[in-house]
Write a structure and sequence with these properties.
By secondary structure, the chain is α+β, with helices and mostly antiparallel strands. It is 36% helix and 20% strand. It contains 6 helices and 9 strands.
Length: 287
């Protein structure tokens, strides 16, 4: 009799465990679906704005054309100059439009043929957008965000941009693919667009490192570098980045060139970090 009772209890326990596993699996699947849906919404933002903003782009282009032809031919000949008005790209216009939804959106980041295709936010601290999306809603994905220390009025030397390494393949998870040199060769360019600039950045270094203790000496803390106060400080950063790079890259940077650093977590060690550093190509539109 006791054996039957024990058997029944064992079966009941297994049934309960089985149902719990089903419930937990369902919750996990739902959460993954929500995160992927949220990421998809962000990656499709530019396409949505493109539809909404088509008329705006056409009107802007028409205004620019009208302004550029306001001077008569006689006035142009007298001055000896033909004034050319700067033109905004469609992406610049889209970023400008997105800022109407959230003024914290400072640009758009894209690496072609990857899932990295997101708005970039900048808050008053470096915590808020770790847990909120571009709509300022709570989100496990967080956002891709620029460090609060970047000063647009200067501007600072290095666009230090952070993003989570999500297991579902979103945000900066694909950044870790740069561990392979072959991936770098297929994706050597980072594109960053603001309302004033549409620029491409050539990658100059790929780092697999960690956050160092304050007591550690002679280590490269790339995550502290935002603005170089001197040429020497800039050059030391570039030299260290090249030295610590996982593989040799011919491209480099010289003092005065704008840098970009994409940083995310890596789990190869405790407090691991993975970073990709690039320098701005000069042939970009800058208003």
């Amino acid at each position: 009799m006791k054996k039957k009772v024990k058997l029944k209890r064992k079966k009941l326990f297994l049934y309960v465990l089985f149902f719990l596993l089903i419930i937990l699996s369902a919750i996990y699947i739902i959460n993954v679906f929500k995160l992927k849906k949220e990421s998809l919404e962000e990656s499709q933002l530019l396409n949505t704005v493109e539809i909404q903003d088509k008329q705006l782009a056409e009107e802007t282009a028409g205004n620019i054309q009208h302004e550029s032809t306001e001077k008569t031919q006689e006035e142009q000949e007298e001055s000896g100059q033909v004034e050319e008005m700067p033109k905004q790209t469609e992406r610049m216009l889209k970023v400008e439009k997105l800022q109407e939804e959230n003024a914290d959106i400072v640009g758009w980041l894209e690496i072609e043929d990857t899932s990295i295709n997101y708005p970039v936010l900048q808050g008053t601290d470096n915590e808020y957008y770790m847990t909120h999306n571009y709509k300022k809603q709570k989100s496990k994905n967080g956002s891709i965000f620029l460090t609060k220390d970047y000063d647009w009025s200067t501007p600072s030397s290095n666009l230090l941009i952070y993003g989570h390494n999500m297991n579902n393949g979103t945000m900066f998870q694909e950044l870790l693919k740069y561990e392979k040199e072959s991936f770098y060769k297929q994706h050597p360019v980072i594109r960053f667009t603001t309302e004033n600039e549409d620029a491409e950045y050539e990658i100059i270094a790929v780092l697999k490192t960690r956050v160092f203790y304050k007591s550690e000496k002679n280590v490269f803390r790339y995550y502290y570098f935002v603005n170089a106060e001197t040429e020497e400080e800039y050059n030391v950063f570039v030299e260290n980045a090249k030295k610590e790079s996982l593989y040799s890259i011919d491209k480099t940077a010289k003092f005065g060139e704008q840098l970009i650093t994409l940083s995310t977590c890596s789990y190869h060690v405790k407090d691991g970090r993975f970073a990709v550093i690039g320098r701005k190509v000069e042939s970009c539109i800058n208003l």
